[in-house]
């Protein structure tokens, strides 16, 4: 499932291939369009050029010289640049340029495509979102966290707290900060809240060059299966469903 590092990878990919060129054609699967239809989308984008794309959390915002295209990748969304027209069965949006096509694929159709006409419209599309997890300062993170209650796992996964984290980045952050996923955030000491912010930033920054959360022992991503050991202390990792998601953690390091 795409998390902040994946979407940042898509942003760079989109910038590299699609910015500055005239849109020659638009094809869309109506099921993937959330606030527009294929004909309107085509009318709005044809002839436009994309300018520098932005990202907030897991949202990709692609402004043109006119309207803005907004993408969410859901569980299975991804971008592919193709030199020739081959429509994959999971293609949901195709943007045609003079030298190729940008394809948005989404097997499970849990992502979506929106149009926004500017900042006010964009806020409506994004809904209530916390600050971007990569950019939130330690002070703001602490202030927001102190206002929360509930498990650490659910809090970090909540996009209205900070935007961009997902199952893998949260499990890695909690393991590095030595905090149990079920720990109520109201009981965290200032030192633990600082550790969460610091480790969250490190997990994200170490993942960014890969365009995804890489499979690595020290991100707990190389060991998400029964019988795996904690890379720090060797204890067998435990698995639990917290906040509706499968969580891996070390029962010794994360009490
Ligand atoms: Zn351990």
Account of the 3D structure:
29% of the residues lie in helices and 20% in strands. It is of the alpha+beta class. The strands form three sheets. Strands 1-6-7-5 form a four-stranded antiparallel β-sheet. The structure holds zinc ion. Zinc ion binds next to loops.
List keywords for this structure.
single chain; 255 residues; alpha+beta; four-stranded antiparallel β-sheet; 7 helices; 10 strands; 29% helix; binds zinc ion
- Biggest pleated sheet: 4 strands, antiparallel
Q: Give, in order, the helices and strands.
A: HEHEEEEEEEHHHHHEE
Strand order of the largest sheet: 1-6-7-5
Number of helices: 7
Question: Short description, anyone?
Answer:
The chain has 7 helices and 10 strands.
């Amino acid at each position: 499932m795409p998390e902040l590092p994946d979407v940042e990878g898509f942003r760079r990919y989109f910038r590299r291939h699609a910015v500055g060129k005239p849109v020659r054609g638009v094809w869309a699967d109506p099921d993937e369009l959330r606030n527009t239809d294929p004909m309107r989308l085509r009318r709005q984008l044809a002839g436009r050029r994309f300018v520098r794309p932005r990202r907030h959390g897991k949202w990709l915002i692609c402004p043109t010289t006119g309207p803005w295209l907004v993408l969410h990748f859901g569980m299975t969304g991804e971008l592919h640049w193709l030199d020739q027209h081959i429509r994959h069965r999971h293609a949901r949006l195709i943007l045609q340029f003079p030298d190729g096509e940008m394809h948005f694929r989404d097997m499970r159709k849990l992502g979506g495509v929106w149009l926004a006409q500017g900042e006010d419209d964009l806020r409506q599309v994004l809904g209530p979102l916390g600050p971007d997890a990569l950019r939130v300062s330690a002070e703001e993170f602490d202030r927001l966290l102190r206002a929360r209650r509930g498990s650490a796992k659910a809090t970090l996964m909540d996009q209205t707290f900070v935007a961009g984290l997902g199952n893998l980045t949260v499990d890695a952050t909690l393991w590095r900060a030595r905090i149990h996923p079920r720990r109520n955030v109201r009981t965290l000491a200032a030192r633990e809240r600082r550790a969460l912010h610091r480790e969250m930033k490190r997990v994200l920054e170490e993942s960014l060059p890969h365009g995804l959360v890489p499979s690595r022992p020290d991100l707990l991503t190389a060991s998400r299966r029964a019988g795996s050991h904690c890379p720090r202390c060797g204890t067998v990792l435990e698995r639990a469903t917290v906040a509706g998601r499968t969580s891996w953690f070390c029962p010794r390091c994360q009490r």
